[in-house]
Amino acid sequence: MDSPVRQPVLSAGQQRFLLSLAACIVPESAGAPTQVTEPLLAAVDEELRPRPRLQQLEFKLLLLAIRWMTVPFTLRRFEHLPPERQHGWLRALESAPLTMLRVGIWGLKTLVFLGYYTQAGVLQQILYFPSKDEGNARLHRHQLPSAG
Amino acid sequence: MDAEFDILIIGSGAGGGTVASALAPLCAEGARIAVLEWGPHFNDDEFTGRELEMAEKLFFDSGAIGNRDQTLNVACARGYGGSTLAYTGTSIEIPQRSLQRWAVPGLTLDDLTPRMRRYKEQNNVHELPDEDINENNQLFADGCRTLGYAVKRFPVNIKGCKGSGMCNMGCPNQAKQGTNRVQLPAAEAGGVQVITNCRVHRITPQGVEAEVVPQSYGRPSAWPIGRCRLGARIVVVAAGAMHSSALLAHSRLPVDLPALGRYFTCHPALTLVAQHDRPIFNYYGFPKTYYCDDFEEQDEFILETCMYFPFTTAKSLAGFGAPHSAMMADFRRLQMILVLVSDRAEAENRITADGEGNPVLHYTFSERTLDALVASQRIAAKIFFAGGAARVHAPAADRFLIDQADRNRVDALIDRQHLKLGKISVQSAHPMGGCRIGTDRSASVTDDRGKVHGLDWLYVADGSLFPGSSGVNPYVTIMALADRVAESLSDRWRSGEFRGRASP
Q: B426-428 and B301-305: which strand pairing?
């Protein structure tokens, strides 16, 4: 018997919007192939899944609010703004007078970083090559971490 | 599964592991002792060094138990060894000035020092040799010395360290001499049972209600999965400051404890990151070698070296987008300093329990703590620049990066108005208080030997005993206080006081 298909916490539309926010938060993820975006979304889903429903709902509401907050001012949804204006809006929210808003943006950033900076390919790009067994040996040999 | 014990110890970290090993000789005299640990006993090869995986497996809430407004995140580990699995093994003795602030009769340096030294010896505590100190640490020491600050080397409890730098994810080489390596195996050899994957739901006058839960990693628990009711003549709660307070609050204790959960402190901390123009040796080698406590007495903060992992580093930076990415682009060029504030014990900062017994943290940053967080960032920035850093990121700066050209303007650029709680989450790995020692029953929970006021069968033996901040990394102080608890219990056992007595 087939095991039931697990529904992601975020809908397809919410996932697409999260990726557009991710492109603003980590510009390298903009237009990244599915080898990068799928693990990012999967990691976010894994992180959200065990959270209480109320927290999941709060996150979805945050996505909704960011998406539509620009409309009264620009007549365009967030994802249709040029990147520099998206950045400006998020920066304003990150320093907003309301602690709740700042915490929301920090949570959003944290989820995106969690999905991005834990990927093996990304760790290689940022030249992070830790060694379980040879850290001291390489230090003693003055062998800096490198891709080669 | 139901069973009877003389002594049940809840938690296996610095407190519980110490009590277990110190009481193990009583097993030869017929005492039935068990340790109940919520987390699993990890196999050696399960410390993979993969950041996300280890955060989820080792820590409650992936290492981020938030306060009510989510401006503070506290890391609490679980597993055979408790938080000693996930610390760096820094073993500083509590200074006289902290004990003076605590002002508990009977709690003196003369009493604690021999205990701390005994455990330091057990745990192979020593300072690192020069050749094992990497540049991330050395540049901090150079910067401090250039500025005239005294820099000290951490005593650390490692044996056979290979310099993985992964201490906070559990040592992959079994080099760190936490209770999982030293005290718990000794306790088990002496006859103490250690039951893992076992969550205690409640302590009642009739016994302890616990549950062995299924776990997909680690060694299987010694007991079958399911609920159990355990009788015990003595219960020692050592589940860590957050969970001990929550467990007692959730339990139906037949005494009024107005200070329970209160006077919580946690060394609120921020990770500061600097960028060099060249790669430095940062993540090869032991991550935490030096500290500076010149400012602890007057300004109530300390500075320590640290080196975290990419995701943890990324979320420690205020901001995002291109400047953030540029900072992260070459991890080898990063240097890090951890600033920790000695926050004061205030009754309003407290831990309660939710309906399921999980800790709920009510913590508000005092003006003094916020000022210290800003002042410590200024000092850290100066140390970075004195060590040769090209750019410094401080969450309380008016810009993402302070360039070296502006090094003389650090005091103006880093300012309280730019420190916005929630923009960056303040971290803590040193939860303390909640079941504080004291003589005044309205402001404390236990006596100076960890016995809960009014209940001669219930003890606490972990960081929750601290009446206030320790001002230094708390691990060996916890061991010393736990040793006092064990000594008291041992005396009572040998006097026959609770031998053969019915369970509470």
A: unpaired
Does ipTM top 0.90? yes
Cα separation of B248 and B229, whole Å?
17
The two structure tokens encoding residue B307? 């080196």
What is the biggest distance separating any 2 CA atoms in chain A, rounded to whole angstroms? Answer: 60
Does A26 touch chain B if contact means CB atoms closer than 8 Å?
yes
> Which residue is closest to A120 within chain B, CA to CA?
B50
Structure tokens at A141: 């040999």
Q: Residue type at A23?
A: A
Same domain, B116 and B137: no
How distant is the Cα of A31 from the closest Cα of chain B, in angstroms?
A: 15
**Domain's final residue, options B420, B452, B486:** B420
CATH number at residue B408: 3.30.410
Total number of domains constituting chain A: 1
B107 shares its domain with B151: no
Residue B260's domain spans which residues? 1-124+159-265+431-504
Q: Which residues contact B426 (CB under 8 A, 6 or more apart)?
A: B71, B72, B73, B268, B269, B270, B365, B373
The answer to whether the CB atoms of B310 and A28 lie below 8 A apart is no
Please check whether residue A69 lies inside any domain of the structure. yes
Residues of chain A with pLDDT under 70: 1-4, 148
CB contact under 8 A, A102 and B423: yes
What is the number of structural domains in chain B? 2
Q: Distance between CA B53 and CA B265 in Å, rounded? A: 29
Sign of the torsion formed by the C-alpha atoms of B401, B405, B407 and B412: negative
H-assigned helices in B135-232: 135-147, 183-189
The runs of H, that is alpha helices, within B292-415 are 296-299, 310-316, 322-328, 367-386, 410-413
What stretches of B251-309 show up as alpha helix (H) in DSSP?
Answer: 296-299
pLDDT of residue B252: 82
Residue A126 lies in a domain: no
A58 falls within a domain: yes
Per residue in B364-414, pLDDT (tens digit) is 999 999 999 999 999 999 999 999 999 999 999 999 999 999 999 999 999
Residues of A in contact with B315 (CB under 8 A): 106, 109-110, 113-114
Are B16 and B481 in contact by the 8 Å Cβ rule? The answer is: no
Q: Give the C-alpha separation, B388 to B280, whole Å.
A: 11
Token code pair at residue B225: 């999965």
